[in-house]
Design goal:
heterotrimer; A alpha+beta (about 425); B alpha/beta (about 210); C alpha/beta (about 230); A: about 425 residues; alpha+beta; 2 domains; about 45% helix; about 10% strand; B: about 210 residues; alpha/beta; Rossmann fold; about 30% helix
Amino acid sequence: MPTTKRTVEVELSTTGLDAQGRPVRVPLVTDDRGNAVAMEAPEAMEPDLAGEHMLINIGPQHPATHGVLRLVLELDGETVVRCIPHIGYLHCGFEKIGEYRQYNQIIPWTDREDYLNSPGNNVAFVLGAERLFGIEITERCTVLRVIAMELSRIISHLVWWGTTCIDIGAFTPFLWLFQERERVYELIEMWIGARLTTSLTRVGGMGADIPDGFMDKLTGFVKSFPKTIDEAERMLSKNAVWVGRTVGLGAMSADEAMNYGLSGPMLRASGVAYDVRRDFPYLDYETYDFDVPVGTSGDVYDRYLVRVEELRQSVRILEQAIRRLPDGPVNVDDHRVILPPKSKATSDMESMIHHFKQVMEGPRPPAGECYVAVESPKGEKGYYMVSDGTSKPVRWRIRPPSFVNLSAIPKMVEGHLLSDVIAINASIDIVMGEIDR
Amino acid sequence: MGLTPRPESTVSYNPASQEGWVATKLDFLVNWARASSLWPMPFGTACCAIEFMASAASDFDLARFGMERMSFSPRQADVLICAGRVPFKLAPVLRRIWQQMPQPKWAISMGACASSGGMFDNYAVVQGIDTIIPVDVYVPGCPPRPEGLIYGIMLLQEKVKKERAADKTLRNEMEPDPKSQLYIPPSLIDELSEPFGNSVHQTRSGL
Amino acid sequence: MSAPFTPLVAGSALGAGAPSPATPHHVALAGGDANPSAAALQARFGDAVRRVHVVRGETNVVVADASLLDIVRWLHDDPSQQYEYLSDVTAVEFRDPEQPIEVVWHLRSIVYRRFLRLKVELTRGEPLAVSSVWDVYKGADWLERECYDMFGIAFRGHPDLRRILMWEGYREGFPLRKDFPLRGRFSRSEQLRQALAANPEARYSMEELSIADAFEDLPQEMRRRLSGGEQAGE
């Protein structure tokens, strides 16, 4: 019999093949010594069907998996007995490429991993890079970045909300919420020229200062947006169908949620009041007046309520940011990282040399490492970068909140129905670009 | 490639042919019906999928083109819109989905990553889905604006309208045939593309 | 639905008089106050804690691999530490071949608002293996699988260590190692050929295939391969 060479000793939950070459049946419920414990036959099932389980594959191409996720489910009738997720279908080697790019060149890659939260990722990355470089950004830049992050949070939550509605069956809110996204896209496009993949920031500042008319348009958006939130919430929050489909599903207790490493609305819905903006602040978030919504039971309904409330709090933060935006330069005055204005670069020798060095070689931080985490709409998003003094990082690690959140899905869907799997998957708010990187 | 002239012309729009008024009108009707109701199979993977969703939403409305009925089952779809980057792990899935679509079918490669690998020139990403499936329209952009995607769809509609039922080769399932004189074995491809292609030598620009 | 619990309010263990956190400004490259947990670790574990240094305000503690699991368990369980949250598990390989490969754990204490980085140094050229912390943190499951997939570091005690991002039969190696070229070891056409040859339906793990009665429904080819002793997963 051919032996299979394994280089890693792992203990799989199955023992493999039996003497006939058939896969060994794994008992579902075992006592401490690994012996099968008899389970009660499920009621209301015909006796000859009880005990036969189906293996169903959802994805990787599927409308409701929010990207290229593959879920293999073991079903006992309609009830999920076990769920095994497979990811990696969108693995594009971000972290490897980061080792071959200068810090400013990595910014477009941060757009594309969590592509719903591009401005937020841009800000998070340059916060880390600036910590590594030891640069302090200007006041105006700080407030602009807060505006970018909250706008980003809004568009990400709107995608989550719209697609969750579609998954659960309510199509109309999708259209309303995506129209609000277009308003935000118009704002971002005014600012930086791109709608979705923004590359909004640069190390030491922003890609561009806000144009004239931006603040007025943003103020208008901030006034009109809460009406849409109310409208969509009125459709759903007390709707018997919505409540019936979401309450009690996929509940995680606070201890479990923390142990699984969940973060963001997933963790807060379970009752743990951990928000990176509050507990490990950045961009002067401690000076803004906002609430962090915390749920009680950690089920899908609570996660929905937490995210909707976060939308309202984002609007609140935006209002404060609009009022306090100071004048002044956006970029820090540091020739090591900020390109000199083109007019000077073509006339003044020193500026030309700085320009040349920055473009050809790239800014070089001192050797060191840094992990900066921000509160992305999905959870704790962190960038860990290690520098050896050259212009390209030695290691660029993305701490993906959706990756860790999704790893809890086998725990969350056990015992639920097949249609609940879709609702629970939607409530995690995953982005495959971030999970697979 | 294709250095020897084809022995017979399969596309005939030549007045001496038997194609008459009825055939051309039938072509017109069939093509118009197909072009006006292309049901897309959104093979959305990444950021382009979000722009595709924005195209389908209210502001850019794909329903005007008869495309609001997204067919997530390939068996009921007309056009595969590959929106987003395709890594090697997903390549067999894309191939399988394409094979599951019944003729007539077309493919739109939306975005830079689907068309050529985009900014992901590394070990993980397919450098253009036209290495896996035959593509009709390439829409550049990263991501393309909804207007760009709509332009690509309109180009596809024009392509569909120019088809002729008499052209038998249009609906062939294209698979590389090793016996064909056009088939180039992979080792020869590597040799021919040596200074420019992927590299085990990694000789390009130090990046 | 879960049993009633008390909501955990971050910072509650610090007490009412604790200063509320603020955005760090002008963080020095090296030096500064270390996380009090580092001193506690040195007091308790002695030599197992090789080195403590503070870089950009973050405390790095380099520990020996043999006591890693005990250290992590103590950090999780001890009431004065309460690192109940594992943020990340990753690895760093430097360009300089003299430097070891570091496996890095990022731990957070939510009640005390602390952040700690633990490291274990592995020498290149030797088989890379560390203990898994899955017993302590369930969230380490996928993080460690990814670390294995990208670097080839084996985590002893992990329940199901197999590739997660690349497909299971991936033969080019471990992508994030520095000797792995950016564009892969094989040529593009070979990569494509290998990718297309992998039958997507065949990628069920042994655990999945053990779900009974699916065996008859498996394609002939898969049944043949399984009977021949082939294991999915390597």
